[in-house]
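Final report, Chapter 2: Outcomes

The project's central promise was a pipeline that accepts a single protein chain and returns its three-dimensional structure in a standardized token representation, suitable for archiving and comparison. That pipeline is now operational. To close this chapter, we reproduce one record exactly as it appears in the project archive, with the input sequence first and the structure output second.
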Amino acid sequence: MTSPKTNILHILGETILLGERREINFNVAKLHTRTTLEVPVIIERSKKPGPIVLFTAGIHGDEVNGVEIVRQIIAKGINKPKCGTIICIPVINIFGFLNMDREFPDGRDLNRMFPGTKSGSLASRVANKLITEIAPKVDLILDYHTGAANRFNAAQIRIVKDNSALDELATTFGAPFVLYSKNLNKSFRNTCHKLGIPMLLFEGGKSFYFDKNITNTGVNGAKRILNHLGMLHVKFRISKPKKKCIYIEESKWIRAKYSGMFKASAKINQQVSKGNIIGHITGPFGKFHHFVKAENSGYIFNVNESPIVNQGDALFHISTELA
């Protein structure tokens, strides 16, 4: 991947030359106290031209594990490229991060507001600024997410099907799973797709929770991608994935048939067969016990870790077709 955007980078009203390091404030808005709220955008440019890669996290304010992955990429100096440019935005939804909330203060999900408008809601304005002033400057985006509502996601890359360039990048990243999924309307990924900007969307872990294995997978995947692009310095050790990547073409949610106390017996990443007992729903008074069974054979890549579930709640996400 060779970027035509090589010598001078114009971003957020600033000009950054090759070899420069800059931290630019993404001016979001003011709080109701009139305090200015800004999101730091960390830019590292090599003296040698090359691709421009953007690492983002925290589109949802509760997805702290993604924030931790990008933080480590910066703290370990992985974001200092041998060639090209690396841009890091560890927390896009700074409002949600401060308030420990998934959404914006206006109650909107930022990842359903793209491409946004300059005169729309607060979330819409942030989406518009990201998609007009930052995204068009880059050649590749790695966007880090986690599971929501106590649902723990296995480390996975989500891409659209029938895109050989994304297939190659996803394989290089080396997560345990690659899930072929459609781009959701008004999402960051779908908007970038329409603009011709390739994106790898990483999912792993759950809200408000740090998981060492998920973090390591996210950081190691970033290093593999940068090494693949010729941007990683030789001092960084590149590890091979422990297991061969599994490509999931179709999947199904297994939902609770009853309300009660829930405990999963199957583990994340586990391969199960149809009819296997993978969890239990019990009543608090010792008179009810329901065995949750796998409705088909496949790999479990999402597990509900809530101890209390209601009828209809998603319990497991399991593959049904492998690519």
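Archive annotation: The two ends are 26 Å apart (CA to CA).
This record, like all others produced under the grant, will remain available to the consortium after the project formally closes.
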